[in-house]
Design brief:
The chain has a ten-stranded mixed sheet with strand order 6-5-4-3-7-1-9-13-2-14, with helices on both faces. Strands 15-16-17-18 form a four-stranded antiparallel sheet, covered by helices on one side. Strands 8-12 form a two-stranded antiparallel sheet. Helix 2 packs parallel to helix 9 and helix 5 packs parallel to helix 7. It has 479 residues and is α/β, with parallel strands linked by helices. The N terminus and C terminus are likely disordered.
């Protein structure tokens, strides 16, 4: 790349993953948003590779993160919604990427959000360094209790800079240690998650004064069921919420830049594979909704919910500003990181490493890549083709059995026409049904399957297939 680097004696590359909470791919300058300011993420895209069609395996927090850590789909790792129950075992007992990399000789660290369980105070197996929220809080400002390797520490201020401070401390400690081990560092920012308030006023004010014409506050279509998290109906409320969201994106981007500056200053920038992505997407007025897959009952797979940003800067590849259009998700990222670290791939996992494509920089290498993307959320499953056809199958749950859906994004990008009963699509629907069944039959575990959602233990009190909750959203985790 652009700077000389100090090569570790192991000749293995360091790995740095930024996995943000609720950051929609649309809310990045390098993905075409003309409003938001994201120079650090843009730098990674300009000096690495940007994936135009990156998806989440599940459009809500804990299941998506569990897929990244385990490489499994939700119907195999068993997490189908965000974990708000403090007694839920989460992914306890399942081998994670951190454990694989530690066994491969990496010094491993986590800074920020974990959410493989309700709380993050307990350091997880495979991590040498642990700095996570003591509670599963989404508070952006004020008192901030963190767990540093299991010991409670109190901080006060904006959350993202505190997480970045810890990441920087990790990098300095590793640099000045006697270890020759490469590092793996996971940084989980949460600021793009609700509530949309208390972001730095210096950033929010800028976006309040900017014509926010990149996003429309659209009317909700009842084809998607019932609104649970609706975008504000009034213009002022919607604009304030969007200004806060944009401010959260820029604040995170600033922290990414701080971490990159430390890598550059220590000579490790060009000895480190850097990934920026998000657990799932987000809506801020699109379709008249706020948040993601749990914004509606039944749960949705709207494009803004399932698409994530993904930029990968690999220092030894030729992907300088490359844009890839083939479909990938977090299970593929899991497989890719394993290959970078020299860990054997797992045949029982669905993910495929795209490291050879990164190293060749030629998308022609991806001709044999899959043309379908799969996603699930509880008792609903989706298959989406690279040509823009999307089939959603819904299975019975505690609150009933909702209608199946089929969309043609080529003629209906806003997903307002359900063609499931249209004879013109019957053959294609039949084909996609077979492919979806084949995929899940191959990779699911019967005792974890979302099709059996009523027999699985609960994760929280607002699951979209259990609509009897009557709680206060300001005081519980919402993924």
């Amino acid at each position: 790349m652009t700077h000389s680097s100090e090569i570790k004696r192991t000749n293995k590359l360091n790995i740095l993953v930024f996995l943000t909470d609720d950051h929609g791919s649309w809310a990045n300058r390098c993905y075409g948003d003309p409003i938001v300011n994201t120079p650090s993420i843009d730098f990674l895209a300009a000096t690495g590779a940007r994936f135009e069609n990156a998806f989440t395996p599940c459009p809500v927090c804990s299941p998506a993160r569990a897929s990244f850590w385990t490489g499994k789909i939700p119907s195999a790792h068993g997490i189908h919604d965000h974990i708000g129950d403090s007694e839920h075992p989460g992914i306890t007992g399942q081998k994670t990427l951190a454990q694989w990399l530690k066994e491969a000789g990496y010094y491993t660290g986590l800074c920020g959000k974990w959410h493989g369980h309700a709380y993050g105070q307990n350091p997880q197996p495979g991590f040498d360094y642990w700095f996570s929220q003591w509670f599963g809080t989404n508070a952006k400002f004020g008192p901030q209790p963190f767990s540093r390797n299991g010991e409670r520490e109190e901080y006060h201020g904006h959350q993202s800079p505190l997480i970045a401070d810890s990441a920087i401390q990790f990098l300095h400690e590793h640099k000045h240690s006697d270890s020759s081990a490469p590092f793996f560092l996971f940084v989980g920012f949460t600021d793009t998650h609700s509530p949309f308030s208390t972001l730095p006023e210096r950033l929010v004010q800028k976006y309040r004064n900017t014509p926010l014409n990149a996003i429309e506050n659209e009317p909700f279509s009842n084809i998607h069921g019932e609104e649970v998290f609706a975008s504000p109906n009034d213009e002022a409320g919607w604009r304030e919420q969007l200004a806060q969201y944009y401010a959260s994106v820029e604040l995170i981007d600033e922290q990414v830049g701080r971490v990159l500056d430390v890598l550059e200053g220590t000579g490790e920038l060009d000895n480190t594979v850097i990934v920026y992505t998000s657990d799932h997407g987000h809506m801020n007025g699109q379709h008249g909704l706020l948040t993601k897959g749990n914004a509606t009952i039944p749960q949705n797979f709207l494009e803004e919910s399932i698409r994530v940003p993904l930029v990968v800067r690999h220092p030894h590849s030729a992907t300088y500003g490359q844009i890839f259009n083939f479909m990938v998700d977090h299970t593929d990222l899991h497989a890719t990181i394993r290959e970078i670290a020299g860990v054997e791939p797992a045949a029982e996992l669905p993910g495929v490493s795209y490291l050879p494509i990164l190293e060749s920089s030629e998308e022609s290498s991806a001709i044999s890549w899959r043309s379908k993307q799969f996603c699930e959320y509880g008792n609903a499953r989706m298959i989406r083709t690279d040509a823009g056809f999307k089939l959603i199958r819904r299975y019975p749950g505690p609150n009933g059995h909702f209608q199946d859906e089929f969309y043609n994004l080529q003629i209906d990008p806003q997903e307002r026409q359900n063609f499931i009963a249209d004879p013109a699509y019957a053959s294609l629907v039949h084909q996609l049904d077979g492919e979806m069944d084949s995929f899940f039959n191959t990779f699911e575990s019967s005792d974890c399957s979302g099709r059996n959602i009523a027999r699985l233990r609960s994760w929280n009190i607002i699951e979209p297939w259990r609509s009897e909750w009557n709680g206060d959203l300001d005081h519980i985790l919402v993924g």
